[in-house]
């Protein structure tokens, strides 16, 4: 599945697994990154500072002064050669959602674009078991998929300056939950009281 390894700075490699965004590939990416995390937790002779998985890529930051880029690249290639079935651990988390108009700021616009009633939008959203592809944009914000195709809408032409904490937004086949107040251009269809990120906790997210 690995397509390309490129050095994008003096202290970072980007591992590219191709352009696709799907659960099977993302599971492979997450499991692949677990090997890198294990190296970091053990002796970490390669000087890996950080490992950031996304939909279909992994960013590895390393200590440039160790001058071991070749060894690090060989380590990455050795993971590819492992005769191992990549399966990342998964667990199910239930999130409460309120779709009242005061929280569903864009549900009327979504209804107009999709020709679906508010009730249909809610039912389609609730009937989906979402998969978290990655955490990004801000601490604790999950990018989840895949939305029912009937709910596919583009980003808002004019982003909001303020999106309230807990707001649930949709764009195309993805869904996000805003863990903090933030600007944003996603279509807000509801809100959750669940706290996704609390910076003062040992495990904030």
TrEMBL record:
Carries keyword Nucleotide-binding? yes
A single Gene Ontology MF term assigned here is: hydrolase activity
Q: Which InterPro entries match?
A: CT_C_D (IPR003833), Cyclophilin-like_dom_sf (IPR029000), PxpB (IPR010016)
Q: Which Pfam families match?
A: CT_C_D (PF02682)
All copies of domain Carboxyltransferase, residue ranges: 3-205
Alphabetic keyword roster: ATP-binding, Hydrolase, Nucleotide-binding
Q: Which NCBIfam families match?
A: 5-oxoprolinase subunit PxpB (TIGR00370)
This chain's protein is named Carboxyltransferase domain-containing protein
